[in-house]
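Q: I have 628 residues here and want to know how they pack in 3D. Can you give me a structure?
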Amino acid sequence: MMEVISRKHKYVIGIDFGHAETSACMCEIEWDKPVDIQDQRIIDLELDHSGKKKVVISAISISSNGRVYIGDAAIRNTDNSSFRIGFKKQPEDEFGEQESLMTSFMSIVYKERIRAFYHELTDDNHVVYIARPSGWNDQRTKDIYTRMALNAGIPLAGLSSESRSAIFYSYSNPKFGFSQNLRKGAMIFDLGSSTLDLTYIAEDIKPIDAGDNLGASIVDKCVFESKFLSNTIVSALLEEHPEYKDRFLYQARLVKETVYSNPSDFVFTRPFLMEEIIGRSTVVPEELLNQVFLVKIKGSEELNEIISRGQSYQKKLSDFVTSFVQVVTEKCKQVGHGYSCNGAILAGGASRMNFLVKEVSAALNIPQSLVQVEREPSMTVSRGIAYLGMKDGMTNVLCSELINDLPNKIKPLDTPNLISRYANRVSESLYEIIESTSAEWVEKGKTCGEDEIKQMIEERLGKEWVNMQHDFILSFILDIIETHAKSVVNEIDNVLSAYEPNISVKVCVTKDDITKEDEEFIASALSEVNRYISGANLDGLSLGRILRDIIFGVFILIRAIFESDHTDRERTYTRIKKNKETIKKEIKWKICEILVEKGTMQSVSDRISSILKNNLLTKLNQVSIPLE
């Protein structure tokens, strides 16, 4: 697939190759405009130029001279029996019969209906994103569909599921007005001719998709069987010439769309001339071509009964939605997020069927007033994929530029400050050990002498520091990274948010992100400090004199008033607590002296910067628009 290149690619085209109809839209990539002044206009492309229509019927035929027609032109081409609809299916063989028809159709839509009419598009100033059914989610299927598009000459830059494209348009486009309530949990239904695609979206969780072969072509088939095939003239013709079946299926689709596009009590009545459906034919007798048969449907209520009786369609749809809600509920629970559905959006050309709102509201257990039908459902997916592609392309380019500039953004750590912060943390931890040991000495000590308390503190320091230094060093690294990352992340987010306000870099370095090699390297650089502490020599830490002064000062007072040993120890403990800051200051000074003398903190600084850089690289590579 193609990679979007900054300022070279000016346009993104989004195409929804539907089973029944195909639509396309275009967005301009406004490279030099921050999001607050971008137009972000989505242009609906006209694909049926003779009829001035945005959509083209997904129909194809090949004339006797080998010319390929699509859309209405395929319907009008009556010198053959190769007319096909419903040829879009989950691909299995890149060069299979139906896959080849689909590839030809894709090629003509792109080359003859888009490139030939929109002259602002040149060979190298645009890319194309294509929507796919949500059920086509295995990698092999997506790879075959990708190759089919490339074989059709399409400069493909990405695929995305149809329902996700639709909901991204609804959710992200500020002009649409997606409510805050819906952002907490909503379902989108993309009901096309071949599939029903569902996506659940809510803040703080990854979108959840599903799809099934419950498209409106099932309804077309019910109408065909009930109102066309039941006619003896039609059934006799198709028994002899099954190659004409798709032409009758297409007429059945038009009947369905006419019924659902009118009030519920509208009665559809129309006489059909056989020749109008199949065209002139050298193999069908003249008297059969002149036959007329009547199709009548008494409003949408009868049509709903036909499809319920013929395929139990409404029940299958309801069961699928109910099953999907159970899956979503379980996945939400797994990530600690409660399931909530505050509304639904119906998209796709088949969403006009009037029973859908009732079935969807019942399956989701929400009022019918919260089920919204798009005003132009045939355009929703193509608008979404164009808008999504524009955002995806721009975001990928920005992230690549930020990754290349990352070494310049991560400023070197201030080594003297790093030394001071480490020494300060050490002094805090060591003082806590000294104070807790002194408190224990008050209760368990046997003398009031300097040697006893020193021995207890030295033993405790040696033992506890060895046990805690691993976690201590990890905690220090994580604290430094968190502090140092703030300015870098803020700068990156400012760049990203200027173009895509819904994206940010979340740096959350945990102990799992620190490799064993990183930890051992930093521990080795700080080993001299660890030796001083674990050696538990208070004189080496400049504490022997301080403790001696504290204890001797108490002894002078003790001797004057002849109090008990326990009271003497309590007084010593109180003096230690009163001298807390002095003790910490002495420890900090000694640790700083060791680190400055050894000069190893610079290597620690470089290593921490490297850890932060690697983490940011990982996060930036993960920043993306949710195409899949």
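Q: Anything worth noting?
A: DSSP finds 22 helices and 16 strands in the chain. Confidence is low (pLDDT under 50) at residues 552-563.
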